[in-house]
Amino acid sequence: MKISRDELPFTYRPDLLVDQLIHRLGVRTSSGLARRLDVSPSMISKVRNLRSPVTAELLVLMHDATGIPIRELRSMMGDTRQRFEAIRMAEAGKPSGDAATAH
């Protein structure tokens, strides 16, 4: 079961982040993005479909691959909070990882 966008305190659209990174990196697919980030294609699919959160580690990988500041990456997916904290996924019932602060 995936989390509903309606359950989140802000407009969370990781699919838009994935699409923008695909465009900016000049790759054609989510699998191409996964290769550039050195993560599994299933991770990108899970993020795109709200089955897994965009973790601090993934944000750092995105930053390293693109040079885009972490705050801007967060903004690209609709996260405008001042502090980054891992989003709890409804089906997990527990935190998805340690919270990290992005400046």
Summarize this, please?
The protein has 103 residues and is mainly alpha-helical. The protein contains 5 helices and no strands. Helix 1 crosses helix 2 and helix 2 packs across helix 3.
State the CATH topology of the domain at 5-76.
434 Repressor (Amino-terminal Domain)
Number of strands: 0
Q: Find the CATH superfamily of the domain at 5-76.
A: lambda repressor-like DNA-binding domains
Strand proportion, as a percent range, falls in under 5%
CATH class call of the domain at 5-76: Mainly Alpha
What is the H/E string?
Answer: HHHHH
Helix content: 40-55%
**Rounded to an integer, what's the Rg over CA atoms?**
13 Å
Given as residue ranges, the uncertain stretches (5+ residues, pLDDT < 50) are 89-103
Number of helices, counting only DSSP H or I runs of 4 residues or more: 5
Main sheet summary = none
Distance between the termini: 32 Å
Shape: globular
Average predicted local confidence, pLDDT: 79
Indicate the CATH architecture of the domain at 5-76. Answer: Orthogonal Bundle
User: Structural class per helix/strand content?
Assistant: mainly alpha
Structure description:
With 103 residues, the chain is mainly alpha-helical. The protein is built from five helices and no strands. The chain is globular and about 30 Å long. Residues 89-103 have low confidence and may be disordered.
